[in-house]
Amino acid sequence: MTNTPPAEALLRLPYSDLIAGTFPPWVHRFIKKTGKAINSYDMIADGDTVLLGISGGKDSLALALALSLRRKWLPIDYRLEALHINWREYPVSPEHVQELKRFFEALDITFISQDAHMFHEAYHDDFNCYHCSRNRRRILFEHAQQRGIRIIALGHHLDDLVETSLINLCFRADFSTMQPVQEFFKGSLYVIRPMIEVRERVPARLDEVYDLPVVKPVCPYDQTNIRSRIKPIIKDLCSIDKLTREHIYHAHDLSCRIPRSGPLQHTASHESTAQGNE
């Protein structure tokens, strides 16, 4: 006789519990660690408007959750908007886009889903992960500029930073990595990574425990790119020292901040939401 758990035990908890403030200590620690990075690098201040780059994966949804819940604890206020890029070559179903929209409405975050071509015409047949990332960033930048937003938040975490460090070191002879705060166009735009001190296992656990409307973005290079081959190497290193990721993080001189002479105001009006496939 097998001890099969009842179907109810396999169900995930509703994310509405998180929004209502009912969550376990490990979720509280996740939000606080995200807030710690925000404060350390002056990422978000009172009056700022932040555009979230949303893929629909666990990391970007975890970021949205942390930034939204964090607002309830602070004496400051900032506005959040979200742009979901829906690749025409590998589209997310309309039903799932609606699930994402309901999730962001519950978080009080303006949500837009924009259809776009993954394979930009400028790249011809020579397409890789770098080109995909650059194309996504181009779309985010254009949307932010149209909305008068100067801060874009991405869901990169500690594991992403470590993988980038090893890729640059081993294959480019350069000990550099992604920055918690990255300046573009002489300060007219900043990319921030609030989860830069959070291990990947945390958003993965959020997805396992709660019914977040996660859809894994389709990537034709998902199992063959360099990052996928670096991951087991990092896992082996961490079996020697469990703080390997943190050691690599602290080995970098991550000194970039957003200069603050006042809030980076959102110049578009509150009501003038950009149109998209909502």
Summarize the structure.
41% of the residues lie in helices and 12% in strands. The protein contains 9 helices and 6 strands; from the N terminus they run ααβαβαβαβαββααα.
Compile the SSE list and pairings.
Layout: H1 16-19, H2 25-40, E1 49-54, H3 58-71, E2 79-87, H4 94-106, E3 110-116, H5 129-147, E4 151-153, H6 158-172, E5 181-184, E6 189-192, H7 201-209, H8 226-240, H9 244-251
Parallel strand pairs: 1-2, 1-4, 2-3, 4-6
Antiparallel strand pairs: 5-6
Helix pairs in contact: 2-3, 3-7, 6-8, 6-9
Task: Describe the model.
With 278 residues, this protein is an alpha/beta fold. It has a single domain (16-251), classed as HUPs (Rossmann fold), CATH 3.40.50. The chain is 41% helix and 12% strand. The chain is built from nine helices and six strands. The chain has helices at 16-19, 25-40, 58-71, 94-106, 129-147, 158-172, 201-209, 226-240, 244-251; strands at 49-54, 79-87, 110-116, 151-153, 181-184, 189-192. The protein has a six-stranded mixed beta sheet with strand order 3-2-1-4-6-5, with helices on both faces. The longest helix is centred in the middle third of the chain and has 19 residues, at 129-147. It starts with 15 loop residues before the first helix and ends in a 27-residue tail after the last helix. The relative contact order is 0.19. Mean pLDDT is 87; it is low at 4-9 and 265-278.
